[in-house]
Amino acid sequence: MKEISCKLLVIGAGPGGYVCAIRAGQLGIDTVIVEAARPGGTCLNVGCIPSKALIHAAEEFEKAMHWAGPKSPLGISVSKPAIDFGRTIGWKDGIVGRLTAGVSGLLKKAGVKSVGGWARFRDGKTVEVETETGTQVIRAEAIVIATGSASIELPDLPFGDNVISSTGALALTDVPKALAVVGGGYIGLELGTAYAKLGAKVTVVEAEDRVLPLYDAELVRPVEKRLAALGVAVMTAARAKGLSKKGDALLVETGLGEKKIVAEKVLVTVGRKPLTGGWGLEEIDLDMAGGAIRIDDHCRASMRGVYAIGDVTGEPMLAHRAMAQGEMVAEIVAGKNRAWDKRCIPAICFTDPEIVSAGLSPDEARADGREVRVAQFPFSANGRAMSRLAEDGFVRIVARADNHLVLGIQAVGQGVSELSAAFGLAIEMGATLEDVAGTIHAHPTQGEAFQEAALRALGHALHI
Amino acid sequence: MAEHTIKLPDVGEGVAEAELVEWHVKVGDPVREDDVLAAVMTDKATVEIPSPVEGEIAWLGAEIGDTVSVGSPIVRIRTTGGDDEIEEAQAQSDQTETESAGKPQTANNDLGRKQPAKKQKAKPAKDERKPVGSEDAEDAEPEHREPSTVRAAVRRPRAAGEKPLASPAVRLRARDAGIDLRRVPGSGPAGRIRHEDLDAYLRGEGEARPVEARRPDTSVEEIKVVGLRRRIAEKMALAKSRIPHITYVEEIDVTALEELRAALNAAGKSDRPKLTILPFLIQAMVVAIGEQPELNAHFDDDAGVVHRFGGVHVGIATQTDAGLVVPVVRHAEARGLRDNAAEIVRLAQAARASTASREELSGSTITITSLGAMGGVVTTPVINHPEVAIIGVNKIMVRPVWDGSVFQPRRMMNLSSSFDHRVVDGWDAARFIQRIKALLEAPAMMFIGD
After folding, report:
1. pTM of whole model > 0.90?
2. Per-residue pLDDT for A37 more than 60?
3. In B203-276, where does DSSP find H-type helix?
């Protein structure tokens, strides 16, 4: 097969890779992107998007079940709802299909050449791709590694049969009667909550003392409360030991001895690891940082002309970070002067209620040895939240005590994921408490809690 | 209540004026008899002025750095009894008030040395005005007297380690313009860099202040050149403006001298000071001066007379905390090596402890300057006016020397010496140094008279 020569080669068409390629195409760079599966990567195919579709369906079903219950405060009554899970999955797949096709179209529109197949480095400038029609050699001046990440497998619970990863959990044909979730991080809780709402008996097994250990206890409390209300059993400080002999139960070691959790499916969500194997990393011998490719603030790997973006570069493994990196690298390759100078990468848990965190938590802010002001405004004092039956949760703001610069904003509550836009903008623009407090926030919205939190930090909240 | 006026006493023979270098008291301080009020400096000695009475300081008649004539009032002390002096003091200030009325205000800031009387009188006038002055005048006064300082800029620099704060659009613009935002001061809330700040920076208004630790310091501190520093400044200016220097540098092989010195030090008793290179140099100079007495001289250029001295009084430039002083080894020609060595040590200690007498700090006829271990390859010494020669000692270093067949490691030392070219010709200067070189390179020669 004839060799391809290009200026920029992107390996992996996930959110980082495809954004990089589109932007490079826009900038007139001769760009090739290689992807072994469908474009969109984990995010579009087996991550963010399908999980949110499933979560939404589960949420709607749970609401319907709620209205069918005896005490509906809104006065709505419905007859007992049912769910055709196959159709739910089909609907979800439809969304994924539309989006991945959209990405293909966008790449084409930007003039990017797509090559389907598994790429492997031959050297720092050359990659071989195993395509359906043979080996394609691609030579490039610059190569972007955007190979993403994969679910971490537990040695005692290898994936297969009833032990599933998040990918498997998004492709079930039926709602399992009992689901054990190993790992109480955001992926496990999002999917566990969805299946609980769809009718599964869910048990979450977490090795740490509480679920979502990466968020502070205050933020997680409303989620724990809701999990309890949904009947999700949470076992903390518990370690999964493997399946029972029959394979119908999960064995868990707790402080009180070994327990057996009957489960039709065991979902293992103990984290993700950079995908650094199988594409010839050993041929180019890049410097590593832990299990990830080490990069500088230009996303340059240790070899000249080789860049890495997204999950393969380690935490935080978030699609929007990969996208920003991809855009930046495309502009660097186009000769522009760019460097990573973002002040915050917001993170969201699509649990029930949702958690948003942008910038520094109060403890992180204090860890810099700086005096900080922290204030929170509860949704129970927000009219819009009350009218939505969404009184649980709050918005919290963290600012420097000396000049009131906003360092971090967190929120927990229904629908707060959409507030991440305001939070991110405030931090990225370098807003002070006075800036947030002095911005008119439309009434009645949950976003008013953001303004009120800033006012409260300044000592003059109006509605509390 | 009475006031006791203290006048500058006659602090030394033939001294007509002295410079006030230190106040030990301020207005309002209680003082007891014999408390030190002030220190004044004459030619090279510092004299403390004690209080003859007990009371409270009512007025100080000079500022640090002022030159005060002998007999001028410098302090008034309010005492609880007696009224003998009050009349005089009052009369003095009344007179000066009218006198200074027509003088420009800048007279107060004039540090000119030649107008002691004017400044003397301006001070009491100012004090007299205070009680009747309006509040405005009192407020305005300190401002007027403050040295001009740079007003705090609106664009504040960031504290050390703080990252520049800017919106993404500003960051992008800065990157495209190739500007490191760490160098751009921000005027927005919390020090945020706005587009306007970037504009100002591009116009060259913004100053480069990456972080507190690295920003240019635009402050200017006013340090009055007083006391010893002023004496040094005057002396140097005098020497450099009047004397056309010729500086001659020659390298000396001191390998043999260093061996001798080491042997003498090893043989010496422990209570005797270790011999440095200086007593040897003095010895060599004494011998060379014996052959060229014109170099051991003072040139009184006003009178057009050269005073050639029989005695070799070697000034040793000595660094002290206060500055450079030159204690003098008197009659080096009459002393032996050890004696000269001991005298150098004693004088250096006295100079550093500020206990050297005026006599010990003046009267040299030729001077040695040495930076000691700090060394240096070459110096251009400034002649100690009105002398005609100064010998500068540079650091001893092992250097390769060609002996005709191979390079030998030899201990080499440069002598950088300046001469008054008006009365010393280059040839004579070179001859003098060559003689010293010959003596130092064969040290036995300087102890054997022929």
Report:
1. no
2. yes
3. 227-242, 255-267
